[in-house]
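Form 7-S
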Amino acid sequence: MHPKTFARADSPPFLPYALPEIGEEEIAEVTDCLRSGWLTTGPKCQQFEAEFTKWLGGGVESIAVNSATAGLHLALEAIGIGPGDEVITTTHTFTATAEVVRYMGADPVFVDVDPRTLCIDPAQVERVITPRTRAVLPVHFGGLAAPMAELLDISHRHKLRVIEDAAHALPTRYQGSLVGTLRTDVAVFSFYANKTITTGEGGMLVTRDPAIAARAKVMRLHGINRDAFDRFTARMPSWYYEVVAPGFKYNLTDIGASIGIHQLRKARQFRNRRAEIASRYNESFASQALVLPPDAKPGDEHAWHLYVVQLLENSHVTRDQFIEGMFARGVGVSVHYIPLHMHPYWRDRYKLTPAMFPASHALYERSISLPIYSRMTDDDVERVVRAVTAVLA
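Output:
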């Protein structure tokens, strides 16, 4: 580790890049769960799913899972993706978005992002459609919705399914509607520890299609045609079940759901605090040598899961020097993302090069994600502002 990364004895504590906000309500609900004797998928999970559906509205069904990765995998399985199929997605994402395609024996086809939105570029999606293409898997990056109208138009014209990677998108609105209620086949949310709401590990698959919902429910727990909660709590003997498919172990526990119930009730409050921090950053960095993150259009809403700044090409500090300078000042930062075309597996299997994805690669080389989470105090925010200003100066 570089000597500068160590804080002086008289310096304030290190400010992490991300921290969850857990209140007494979540703790009490978990305690109630532990005392109930039912820890795995059961009444708390059913309550969380029901409240999530009600919170979204729009006639959808919600299926709780142990990660967004699991939800994406279940979605692809439910729509019948298999060997020989292609699914179009972006290189500028976490590997989970693409690896689930490989789980099905299919091939992801990677395209670049639009440098204005940092989301998948619809024009490039249309260029790579082939007779093997079965689906499009857009990523809502950083809390901003991908251009869904264009993507849905392309998908309808080419008879493709659409599964949204909505890991960053709670609560995000697109053209007035919450992500999760759009006219796609599936949206999958993440409740990982650094997301807008958390269950520690967890996710939610949301769909309007009863067939997809039914298949996902069966496949999330070993392909069994009855929930364990129903089998073990029935008043009459109900031990019998059938395995109807080779399913997975993707269920969310009641312990996680107990946290999620109260996190969901605070989702609007958490998002609003993130928006306040983003506004303060925008104001503070307007005159700095930075490209600020794109905001939502009128009628849309940004979840502000990430606040990604980009160094200008003529900046006198590199991205890595900027990160080192922030850590030397006791402030954690991150990078979203190391694009998939740079990772050995994806690069070598699909013969990917940076020249194929100029917008994503430039974003990677110049971007830094600053802390933005609801537990940050105003003093924390000002500390980040001072650190950024000092590093750039």
